[in-house]
Structure prediction request, 57 residues.
Amino acid sequence: MTSSTTRSLQSERLFGTLEKRHCEFCDNGTLERDIYKGNNALVCSNCGVPTVQVWEE
Ligand SMILES: [Zn+2]
Prediction:
């Protein structure tokens, strides 16, 4: 197992925890997995604000 694999698993766990939560910037949005500026991110389905970004090296 490499360090990058470990980092990806931690990212998966983080995303799994935060996915589908209510957006904190608007009333009606939920957080969906998406790509933001080339990084994995959780982006609000309503207002489009990226809440979590994960940079893979
Ligand atoms: Zn929102």
